[in-house]
Amino acid sequence: MKIAILRERYECFGGAEVYSQGLIEHLARAGHSVHIYAIRWEGPPVEGVYFHRVPAVRFDPFLRDITFALSSYFILKKEKFDIIQTHGKTLYQDIYRAGDGCHIEWLRQRWKRTNLKGKIHIVLTPYNWLILLLERIIFKKHRFRKVIAISELVKRNIIQNYHMNEEDIEVIYNGVDLERFHPKNKGLYRKEIRSRYGISEDEFVVLFVGSGFERKGVRFLLKAIEIVPGPLTLMIAGKGSKEEFEGLVKNQRVIFCGPQKEIHRYYASADVFVLPAIYEPFGNVHLEALASGLPVITTKLSGGAELIRDGLNGFVIDRPEDVEEIAKKIIYLMDKYENQRMGLNARKTAENFSIESHIERMVRFYYSLKV
């Protein structure tokens, strides 16, 4: 098949970006002709993947998104593809992949948890209004043949906010590289990463991975570990402003590691993974942690929670601001037997979501639209 994929930036950091890159490379290896329409890209060339630069303003997010949406519309109207799939808020596609969930839902959850200053900032940010407008045009004007929701959470959000027909939405969970993210990595990288940051072998390590610290609940995690008795280390890997969070913890050790390309090594160094998100459409990090053999603590406001069974492979917290409950679950997982038991179950869960099975499902889905 000849497939076009729209993505503003094709790069190696962030869950959505890594997912896009993996999907594209697997499709190309399977013999499909894949055409990427993006403002910019990085990384070595891939056989069977063709890059097309979309002219757009780069220096401002508002202008970038609107010019990319308009430019890609006029470019793709002239082209012929079997499938056009977008990974962003664009206006011409067969498949709209709602990888970012619903912006209106994120703003709603953020509104509930911010002060007056934060609410004013939400209202006065032009970018929010642009994304809401593009989102409304896509869903209300039916700018697609099908929508891919990356979780049941996203599907519910779309139906509740835009009153779409359930039949227009297909839920397809992401997949994970089961070789790259594997419990065997503990024997390969655990000591290396811990020694790099001065962490002893017997120290309990909590790991957070994600970009966008506010949305993904770093503040709540910091408050939770502060009330955990006994020493532990929290490692925070990802892009985000650490300055506003550094003063929140005095009794525990927190290491801001920044973005990491070799993130599988960091999972290997940890004992538990925690993501107390305010809103997370899916969160590939859930699958990466499970595949690495880590119990996962997350919230009901995350699509990845749909993979977690309480007490089996992790815990799901009702509200991200319930820091006492997060702390309680971390303490529970400090028990070596329970940690090991749930870690084994975590790996078993992830084995149902291989990247290969995900690609196969995506291709079947493409062919169902092509007929």
What is the compact description of this entry?
This protein is 41% helix and 17% strand.
Describe this structure in words.
Strand 8, helix 6 (152-162) and strand 9 form a beta-alpha-beta unit. The chain has helices spanning 15-29, 61-76, 103-112, 116-124, 126-140, 152-162, 185-196, 218-226, 263-269, 284-291, 323-332, 336-350, 355-370, and strands at 2-6, 9-10, 33-38, 40-41, 49-53, 83-86, 95-98, 146-149, 169-171, 205-209, 233-237, 253-258, 272-275, 296-299, 314-317. Helix content is 41%, strand content 17%. It contains 13 helices and 15 strands. It is an alpha/beta fold. The relative contact order is 0.12. The chain has 2 domains: 2-175 and 354-370, Rossmann fold, CATH 3.40.50.2000; 185-350, Glycogen Phosphorylase B (Rossmann fold, 3-Layer(aba) Sandwich), CATH 3.40.50.2000. The protein has a 7-stranded parallel sheet. The protein has a 6-stranded parallel sheet with strand order 12-11-10-13-14-15, sandwiched between helices.
